[in-house]
Amino acid sequence: MINAIIGQKLGMTQEFLKNGQVVPLTVVEAGPCFILQVKNKENDGYEAVKIAFGQSKGKYAKKPTLGEMKKAKKTLAPALIVEVSGGGKNLKVGEEIKVDDIFKKGDFVDATGFSKGRGFAGVIKRWGFHGGPATHGQSDRQRAPGSIGQRTTPGRVYKGKKMPGRMGNKKVTVRNLEIIEIDEAKNLLYVKGAIPGARRGMVVIKKRKTQKSRHSSASWRKNDKVR
Q1: 20 to 30 Å CA-CA from 217: which of 67, 93, 132, 188?
Q2: What are the boundaries of the region Disordered (predicted)?
């Protein structure tokens, strides 16, 4: 069985629970997706399913993608194709997958998306550096990174040094998010908490094997100690 679905982040809102607690919600248009390819151990060495979501301009798609679309009896190329774990003999190419086929209210999921791109950023914005002092003759070093190297040995800058550079636009996964509500008619998921990415950004919602949050209020009360 498929354990994930592709969606589009619509925005955020909030809702009051029955106990009066207000929780932030992220609204995701999850699906409907359709199956492009079903992989099995005999042909591919492992079991997986390639699913697609949305539509893009077909003339800009690559020929292999257009060939897969033809087998699935679709005309336009999808906006996003993702391979997810799962499989089974009952799955067929071109079959539609809806949000209620995988998730139900109360499930815990992992959400993967691309964080907002912030362009080229300095070390203060990117890494939280404090900068140099605005005294002792330093008139233009308040936001500078400072020394980045060593002496003759090793005579180079170590890999991974925190430097200015492109910030954001990276693949981010947020785990242990709870599904508060599902709108089956509109294919909407209301997920507790924030999901990475901007509005209209693509996200992959994956169902967790362990259906219990590590950060639930009950677990916090149990592990809380008086210090």
Answers
A1: 188
A2: 131-153, 206-227
Domain that holds residue 128: 118-167
> In this structure, are residues 25 and 70 in contact, taking their beta carbons and an 8 Å threshold?
no
| Residue 14, SS3 per DSSP | strand
Domain boundary among 127, 152, 167: 167
pTM of the entire predicted model: 0.77
Pull the structure tokens for residue 134: 């605005």
Residue 71 CA from chain centroid, whole number:
28
- Structure confidence by residue, pLDDT tens digits, 75-84: 777 888 888 8
| Residue closest to 107 by CA, chosen among 6, 207, 220, 216 | 207
Q: Enumerate the β-bridge partners of residue 167.
A: 119
The segments of the chain whose pLDDT lies below 70 read: 57-60, 87-89, 211-227
Pairing state between β 48-53 and 4-16: unpaired
* Residue-wise pLDDT tens digits, 162-172: 999 999 999 99
C-alpha distances out from residue 153 to 125, 149, 157, Å: 30, 10, 10
Please say whether the beta carbons of 203 and 109 come within 8 A. Answer: no
Same domain as 131, residue 31? no
Residue-wise over 58-88: b if at least 16 C-beta within 10 A, else e? eeebeeebeebbeebebeebbebbbebebbe
